[in-house]
Amino acid sequence: MRRLLISSAALALVLGTAMAAPQDNDNDNNRHRDRAMQQQQGNDRMASPMSEQRSDMRDNARERHNNLQNMSDQRTDRADRVRNRDRNADKNVDVQRNVTVDRNVTVNKNVRVHRNIDVVKYQRNVTATRRFHGPNWYRPASFRYVRYSYGMYLPSAFFVRDYWLTDYFAFGLIAPPPGFVWVRYGDDALLIDEFSGEIVQVQYNIFF
User: Fold this and answer.
1) What is the pLDDT of residues 41-93, one digit of tens each?
2) Domain extent listing, the chain
3) SS3 at position 121
4) Burial class (CB within 10 angstroms; exposed 0-12, middle 13-18, buried 19+) of 203
5) Is 105 exposed, middle or buried (CB count within 10 Å of its CB: 0-12, 13-18, 19+)?
6) In CATH, which of 3.40.50.1000, 3.10.450.160, 3.30.300.30, 2.40.50.140 is domain 119-204?
7) Rounded Cα gap, residues 188 and 208, in angstroms
8) pTM to 2 decimals?
9) Which of 6, 128, 141, 200 would bridge 206 by S-S if both were Cys, CB 3.0 to 4.6 A apart?
């Protein structure tokens, strides 16, 4: 009887263990599944910000690319406008290309300038009624007196500024017309063309 009871208890223990083992296995599986789900959720939560950051980076890169493209287009437009403006400016310029410049031009500074002066009314040869002590007059070397009259030409050595009579009123002389000057020639005063030396009036023996 005692053996029967022990056998029954052992059988019950074996059956209980066998029944409990699957239940424990189920519990372990559930725990593993829960941990895996939690880990996946954690990974998803971690991956979500990274994905958003990558998306933001792509958007920023795309925006920078668009800005650079717009800047390049604007520079191209400005360059085109400048080229068009220069082309239009060139079209409106009339350039005379067939210009021949005569560089071998000799300018005669002693050419008598045309004047609207009637020199005939000045032409006379007279002997002065009064005589004056004039400015110092230095006789040029090899000087030989010639009695000049109007219409003749005084040598250039005698109508330089050293012989000009700028205070002509002091010697009873008329004011010279433009382009003419009074010069002293020995004892005479001659009204001459300052460019050519042509004599238009002579006052003889006006100086001592």
Assistant:
1) 666 565 555 667 777 788 888 888 788 787 777 777 777 776 766 565 555 54
2) 1-92, 119-204
3) helix
4) buried
5) exposed
6) 3.10.450.160
7) 9
8) 0.47
9) 128
